[in-house]
Amino acid sequence: MKITKELALAFRKELENVSSVIIGTHLNPDGDALGSALAVSLFLDGLGIPNEVLCHHNAPANLKFLPNVAGVRQKPKQDKHDLGIVVDLDALDRLGQTEPYFHECKRMVVVDHHLPHESPGDLRIVDSSEPATSLILSRLLLELGANITPDIATCLLTGIVTDTGSFRFRNTTPDALSISAILLEHGGDINLISEEVFQSKPLSSVRLLGHALETMRLDCDRRLAWSSLSNHDFVVADALDEDTEGVVNEMLFITSVQIAALIREPEPGKIRCSFRSRSKYDVAVAARDFGGGGHKNAAGCTFDLPLKEAEELVVRRLKLCLESC
Ligand SMILES: [Mn+2]
To answer: How far is CA 85 from CA 24, 44, 95, 109, in A?
Structure first.
Protein backbone atom coordinates (compact mmCIF):
# COMPACT_ATOMS: atom_id res chain seq x y z
CA MET A 1 0.00 0.00 0.00
CA LYS A 2 1.28 3.40 -0.88
CA ILE A 3 1.36 5.63 2.15
CA THR A 4 0.32 8.95 0.69
CA LYS A 5 1.30 12.27 2.22
CA GLU A 6 -2.37 12.75 3.14
CA LEU A 7 -2.54 9.44 5.01
CA ALA A 8 0.71 10.13 6.85
CA LEU A 9 -0.52 13.60 7.79
CA ALA A 10 -3.85 12.15 8.94
CA PHE A 11 -1.89 9.83 11.23
CA ARG A 12 0.23 12.68 12.54
CA LYS A 13 -2.92 14.69 13.17
CA GLU A 14 -4.22 11.89 15.42
CA LEU A 15 -1.12 12.40 17.56
CA GLU A 16 -1.63 16.13 17.94
CA ASN A 17 -2.50 17.24 21.45
CA VAL A 18 -2.85 13.71 22.82
CA SER A 19 -1.69 13.35 26.39
CA SER A 20 -1.48 9.57 26.37
CA VAL A 21 -1.79 6.64 24.00
CA ILE A 22 -2.37 2.92 24.44
CA ILE A 23 -1.12 0.51 21.84
CA GLY A 24 -2.77 -2.87 21.44
CA THR A 25 -2.30 -6.06 19.50
CA HIS A 26 -3.71 -9.55 19.24
CA LEU A 27 -3.89 -12.55 21.54
CA ASN A 28 -0.96 -14.96 21.29
CA PRO A 29 1.20 -12.21 19.81
CA ASP A 30 3.66 -13.08 17.05
CA GLY A 31 6.70 -11.20 15.77
CA ASP A 32 4.65 -8.85 13.61
CA ALA A 33 2.19 -8.10 16.42
CA LEU A 34 4.80 -7.28 19.06
CA GLY A 35 7.33 -5.82 16.63
CA SER A 36 4.70 -3.41 15.30
CA ALA A 37 3.35 -2.47 18.73
CA LEU A 38 6.80 -1.85 20.20
CA ALA A 39 7.91 0.12 17.13
CA VAL A 40 4.91 2.45 17.54
CA SER A 41 5.71 2.77 21.24
CA LEU A 42 9.36 3.66 20.60
CA PHE A 43 8.30 6.13 17.92
CA LEU A 44 5.91 7.84 20.36
CA ASP A 45 8.66 7.83 23.02
CA GLY A 46 10.79 9.74 20.54
CA LEU A 47 8.04 12.33 20.18
CA GLY A 48 7.70 12.57 23.96
CA ILE A 49 4.16 11.17 23.91
CA PRO A 50 3.40 9.00 26.97
CA ASN A 51 2.25 5.56 25.88
CA GLU A 52 1.79 1.99 27.00
CA VAL A 53 1.74 -1.28 25.06
CA LEU A 54 -1.00 -3.68 26.15
CA CYS A 55 -1.32 -7.33 25.28
CA HIS A 56 -3.52 -10.10 26.63
CA HIS A 57 -0.67 -12.62 26.60
CA ASN A 58 2.99 -12.33 27.53
CA ALA A 59 5.59 -12.36 24.78
CA PRO A 60 6.63 -15.88 23.78
CA ALA A 61 10.17 -16.84 24.77
CA ASN A 62 11.59 -16.29 21.27
CA LEU A 63 10.42 -12.66 21.22
CA LYS A 64 11.75 -11.72 24.65
CA PHE A 65 14.72 -10.05 22.96
CA LEU A 66 12.58 -7.29 21.45
CA PRO A 67 13.49 -3.81 22.72
CA ASN A 68 11.20 -2.70 25.60
CA VAL A 69 9.20 -5.94 25.51
CA ALA A 70 9.43 -6.14 29.31
CA GLY A 71 7.20 -3.05 29.48
CA VAL A 72 4.24 -4.76 27.76
CA ARG A 73 1.35 -4.96 30.23
CA GLN A 74 -2.10 -6.56 30.51
CA LYS A 75 -3.61 -3.56 32.29
CA PRO A 76 -2.75 0.08 31.73
CA LYS A 77 -1.07 1.90 34.60
CA GLN A 78 -3.19 4.92 33.93
CA ASP A 79 -6.97 5.22 33.60
CA LYS A 80 -7.88 7.39 30.65
CA HIS A 81 -6.22 7.57 27.25
CA ASP A 82 -6.92 9.88 24.34
CA LEU A 83 -5.91 7.55 21.59
CA GLY A 84 -5.75 3.82 20.98
CA ILE A 85 -3.48 2.47 18.27
CA VAL A 86 -4.26 -1.11 17.35
CA VAL A 87 -1.87 -3.09 15.18
CA ASP A 88 -2.05 -6.39 13.32
CA LEU A 89 -5.71 -7.24 13.91
CA ASP A 90 -9.10 -6.45 12.48
CA ALA A 91 -11.56 -7.67 15.10
CA LEU A 92 -11.37 -6.00 18.48
CA ASP A 93 -12.20 -9.17 20.39
CA ARG A 94 -8.71 -10.31 19.35
CA LEU A 95 -7.48 -7.78 21.94
CA GLY A 96 -8.69 -10.21 24.63
CA GLN A 97 -8.85 -8.71 28.11
CA THR A 98 -7.32 -5.45 26.94
CA GLU A 99 -10.30 -4.66 24.66
CA PRO A 100 -12.31 -2.48 27.13
CA TYR A 101 -9.44 -0.01 27.53
CA PHE A 102 -9.54 0.69 23.80
CA HIS A 103 -13.28 1.28 23.80
CA GLU A 104 -12.68 4.01 26.37
CA CYS A 105 -10.32 5.90 24.05
CA LYS A 106 -11.69 8.96 22.27
CA ARG A 107 -10.13 7.92 18.96
CA MET A 108 -8.73 4.75 17.49
CA VAL A 109 -6.19 4.13 14.74
CA VAL A 110 -5.85 0.69 13.16
CA VAL A 111 -2.76 -0.39 11.22
CA ASP A 112 -3.20 -3.85 9.79
CA HIS A 113 -2.78 -6.29 6.92
CA HIS A 114 -5.54 -8.84 7.63
CA LEU A 115 -8.63 -9.16 5.45
CA PRO A 116 -11.05 -6.50 6.69
CA HIS A 117 -13.46 -8.20 9.02
CA GLU A 118 -15.06 -5.83 11.49
CA SER A 119 -13.11 -2.78 10.23
CA PRO A 120 -12.90 -0.87 13.53
CA GLY A 121 -11.11 2.45 13.96
CA ASP A 122 -11.52 6.16 13.16
CA LEU A 123 -8.41 6.14 11.00
CA ARG A 124 -7.59 2.90 9.21
CA ILE A 125 -4.25 2.23 7.56
CA VAL A 126 -4.99 -1.22 6.23
CA ASP A 127 -3.95 -3.24 3.22
CA SER A 128 -4.52 -6.99 3.16
CA SER A 129 -2.17 -7.43 0.19
CA GLU A 130 0.82 -6.46 2.37
CA PRO A 131 2.91 -9.22 3.96
CA ALA A 132 3.23 -7.57 7.37
CA THR A 133 1.80 -4.78 9.48
CA SER A 134 5.42 -3.86 10.25
CA LEU A 135 5.97 -3.16 6.56
CA ILE A 136 3.01 -0.75 6.42
CA LEU A 137 4.31 0.93 9.59
CA SER A 138 7.84 1.19 8.17
CA ARG A 139 6.49 3.08 5.17
CA LEU A 140 4.38 5.29 7.41
CA LEU A 141 7.37 6.21 9.59
CA LEU A 142 9.56 6.81 6.53
CA GLU A 143 6.90 9.03 4.95
CA LEU A 144 6.69 10.99 8.21
CA GLY A 145 10.46 11.42 8.19
CA ALA A 146 10.55 9.82 11.66
CA ASN A 147 13.82 9.14 13.43
CA ILE A 148 14.09 5.37 12.92
CA THR A 149 16.42 4.28 15.70
CA PRO A 150 18.20 0.89 15.65
CA ASP A 151 15.64 -0.39 18.20
CA ILE A 152 12.69 0.69 16.05
CA ALA A 153 14.37 -0.86 13.00
CA THR A 154 14.87 -4.17 14.86
CA CYS A 155 11.20 -4.24 15.92
CA LEU A 156 9.93 -3.55 12.39
CA LEU A 157 12.39 -5.95 10.80
CA THR A 158 11.25 -8.69 13.20
CA GLY A 159 7.69 -8.26 11.95
CA ILE A 160 8.66 -8.46 8.30
CA VAL A 161 11.07 -11.38 8.79
CA THR A 162 8.60 -13.45 10.84
CA ASP A 163 5.49 -12.81 8.71
CA THR A 164 7.35 -13.65 5.49
CA GLY A 165 8.98 -16.74 7.05
CA SER A 166 12.42 -15.19 6.51
CA PHE A 167 11.44 -14.10 2.99
CA ARG A 168 10.45 -17.62 1.97
CA PHE A 169 6.63 -17.33 1.96
CA ARG A 170 4.74 -16.32 -1.15
CA ASN A 171 3.84 -12.98 0.42
CA THR A 172 7.48 -11.85 0.04
CA THR A 173 7.15 -8.74 -2.12
CA PRO A 174 9.93 -6.59 -3.61
CA ASP A 175 9.06 -4.05 -0.93
CA ALA A 176 9.46 -6.61 1.86
CA LEU A 177 13.09 -6.86 0.79
CA SER A 178 13.76 -3.22 -0.06
CA ILE A 179 12.16 -1.87 3.13
CA SER A 180 14.09 -4.50 5.11
CA ALA A 181 17.28 -3.21 3.50
CA ILE A 182 16.39 0.29 4.66
CA LEU A 183 15.74 -1.03 8.17
CA LEU A 184 19.17 -2.71 8.14
CA GLU A 185 20.67 0.63 7.19
CA HIS A 186 18.97 2.11 10.24
CA GLY A 187 20.65 -0.46 12.48
CA GLY A 188 18.07 -3.25 12.50
CA ASP A 189 19.85 -6.29 13.94
CA ILE A 190 19.01 -9.17 11.59
CA ASN A 191 21.57 -11.47 13.21
CA LEU A 192 19.94 -11.05 16.60
CA ILE A 193 16.50 -11.71 15.07
CA SER A 194 17.66 -14.85 13.25
CA GLU A 195 19.31 -16.24 16.32
CA GLU A 196 16.55 -15.46 18.79
CA VAL A 197 13.53 -16.22 16.63
CA PHE A 198 14.70 -19.16 14.54
CA GLN A 199 17.79 -20.71 16.10
CA SER A 200 16.92 -21.06 19.79
CA LYS A 201 14.33 -23.61 20.79
CA PRO A 202 13.56 -25.01 24.20
CA LEU A 203 14.05 -28.76 24.48
CA SER A 204 10.30 -29.14 25.19
CA SER A 205 9.53 -27.71 21.77
CA VAL A 206 11.81 -30.14 19.92
CA ARG A 207 10.41 -33.08 21.90
CA LEU A 208 6.86 -32.04 21.03
CA LEU A 209 7.80 -31.66 17.35
CA GLY A 210 9.20 -35.19 17.39
CA HIS A 211 6.00 -36.54 18.86
CA ALA A 212 3.79 -34.61 16.42
CA LEU A 213 5.70 -35.93 13.40
CA GLU A 214 5.81 -39.46 14.79
CA THR A 215 2.02 -39.53 15.16
CA MET A 216 1.23 -37.53 12.01
CA ARG A 217 -1.60 -38.82 9.82
CA LEU A 218 -1.84 -38.61 6.04
CA ASP A 219 -4.85 -38.87 3.73
CA CYS A 220 -6.03 -37.96 0.20
CA ASP A 221 -3.00 -39.51 -1.50
CA ARG A 222 -0.72 -37.93 1.08
CA ARG A 223 -1.88 -34.47 0.09
CA LEU A 224 -3.39 -33.83 3.53
CA ALA A 225 -1.29 -34.14 6.68
CA TRP A 226 -2.34 -33.52 10.24
CA SER A 227 -1.36 -34.25 13.77
CA SER A 228 -3.14 -33.97 17.10
CA LEU A 229 -1.44 -33.18 20.38
CA SER A 230 -3.40 -33.98 23.52
CA ASN A 231 -3.05 -32.13 26.77
CA HIS A 232 -1.24 -35.20 28.06
CA ASP A 233 1.37 -34.76 25.28
CA PHE A 234 1.97 -31.19 26.46
CA VAL A 235 2.33 -32.32 30.06
CA VAL A 236 4.77 -35.11 29.16
CA ALA A 237 6.94 -32.76 27.06
CA ASP A 238 6.60 -29.99 29.69
CA ALA A 239 5.58 -27.76 26.79
CA LEU A 240 3.45 -24.68 26.21
CA ASP A 241 1.38 -23.86 23.14
CA GLU A 242 4.11 -21.50 21.93
CA ASP A 243 6.35 -24.59 21.66
CA THR A 244 4.20 -25.81 18.75
CA GLU A 245 5.23 -22.84 16.59
CA GLY A 246 6.48 -24.18 13.27
CA VAL A 247 5.25 -27.75 13.77
CA VAL A 248 2.51 -27.37 11.16
CA ASN A 249 5.02 -25.99 8.65
CA GLU A 250 7.20 -29.09 9.04
CA MET A 251 4.26 -31.20 7.84
CA LEU A 252 3.62 -28.89 4.88
CA PHE A 253 7.28 -29.27 3.84
CA ILE A 254 6.57 -32.88 2.79
CA THR A 255 6.65 -32.94 -1.03
CA SER A 256 3.20 -34.46 -1.54
CA VAL A 257 1.43 -32.42 1.14
CA GLN A 258 -0.77 -29.52 0.00
CA ILE A 259 -2.60 -28.80 3.27
CA ALA A 260 -1.36 -29.42 6.82
CA ALA A 261 -3.07 -28.98 10.16
CA LEU A 262 -2.02 -29.12 13.77
CA ILE A 263 -4.82 -29.68 16.27
CA ARG A 264 -3.82 -29.43 19.90
CA GLU A 265 -5.02 -29.05 23.46
CA PRO A 266 -2.40 -26.96 25.26
CA GLU A 267 -4.76 -26.40 28.20
CA PRO A 268 -7.41 -28.93 29.22
CA GLY A 269 -10.56 -28.38 27.14
CA LYS A 270 -9.06 -25.62 24.97
CA ILE A 271 -8.46 -26.76 21.41
CA ARG A 272 -6.40 -24.67 19.01
CA CYS A 273 -5.87 -25.44 15.32
CA SER A 274 -3.37 -24.11 12.80
CA PHE A 275 -3.75 -24.66 9.07
CA ARG A 276 -1.15 -24.18 6.35
CA SER A 277 -1.53 -24.68 2.62
CA ARG A 278 0.39 -24.46 -0.59
CA SER A 279 -0.37 -21.57 -2.93
CA LYS A 280 -3.71 -22.32 -4.55
CA TYR A 281 -5.47 -23.85 -1.54
CA ASP A 282 -7.36 -21.42 0.68
CA VAL A 283 -7.41 -22.55 4.32
CA ALA A 284 -8.68 -19.17 5.61
CA VAL A 285 -12.13 -20.15 4.30
CA ALA A 286 -12.05 -23.33 6.36
CA ALA A 287 -10.87 -21.45 9.46
CA ARG A 288 -13.67 -18.90 9.06
CA ASP A 289 -16.25 -21.70 8.93
CA PHE A 290 -15.17 -22.52 12.48
CA GLY A 291 -15.16 -18.89 13.66
CA GLY A 292 -11.43 -18.39 13.10
CA GLY A 293 -9.51 -16.51 10.46
CA GLY A 294 -6.15 -15.66 8.99
CA HIS A 295 -4.63 -15.60 5.56
CA LYS A 296 -5.17 -17.79 2.49
CA ASN A 297 -2.17 -20.02 3.21
CA ALA A 298 -1.96 -19.66 7.01
CA ALA A 299 -5.03 -19.63 9.22
CA GLY A 300 -6.35 -20.94 12.49
CA CYS A 301 -9.34 -21.43 14.77
CA THR A 302 -10.30 -22.69 18.22
CA PHE A 303 -12.85 -25.19 19.53
CA ASP A 304 -14.56 -25.95 22.81
CA LEU A 305 -14.90 -29.61 21.92
CA PRO A 306 -13.14 -32.84 22.79
CA LEU A 307 -9.89 -33.13 20.80
CA LYS A 308 -11.11 -36.12 18.79
CA GLU A 309 -14.29 -34.33 17.66
CA ALA A 310 -12.39 -31.20 16.69
CA GLU A 311 -9.96 -33.33 14.72
CA GLU A 312 -12.79 -35.03 12.81
CA LEU A 313 -14.42 -31.70 11.93
CA VAL A 314 -11.13 -30.20 10.78
CA VAL A 315 -10.09 -33.17 8.68
CA ARG A 316 -13.49 -33.37 6.99
CA ARG A 317 -13.41 -29.63 6.19
CA LEU A 318 -9.84 -29.65 4.90
CA LYS A 319 -10.63 -32.53 2.58
CA LEU A 320 -13.29 -30.24 1.01
CA CYS A 321 -10.62 -27.56 0.61
CA LEU A 322 -8.45 -30.02 -1.28
CA GLU A 323 -11.32 -31.09 -3.52
CA SER A 324 -12.32 -27.49 -4.33
CA CYS A 325 -9.19 -26.87 -6.39
MN1 LIG B 1 0.98 -9.81 10.80
So the answer is: 6, 11, 12, 5
Distance 155 CA to ligand 1 centre (A): 13
**Cβ-based neighbour number of residue 181 at 10 Å:** 9
Q: Which domains does the chain have, with CATH numbers?
A: 5-198 (3.90.1640.10), 206-323 (3.10.310.30)
Distance 220 CA to ligand 1 centre (A): 31
- At 32-46, the pLDDT tens digits run 999 999 999 999 999
pLDDT in tens, 232-287: 999 999 999 989 988 999 999 999 999 999 999 999 999 999 999 998 999 999 99
Q: How far is the CA of 31 from the centre of ligand 1 (A)?
A: 8
CA distance 225 to 254: 9
| Dist. CA 60 → ligand 1 center (Å) | 15
Which pTM was predicted?
0.84
Instruction: Report the alpha-carbon distance of residue 115 to residue 294 in Å, rounded.
Output: 8
Cα 213 to middle of ligand 1, angstroms: 27
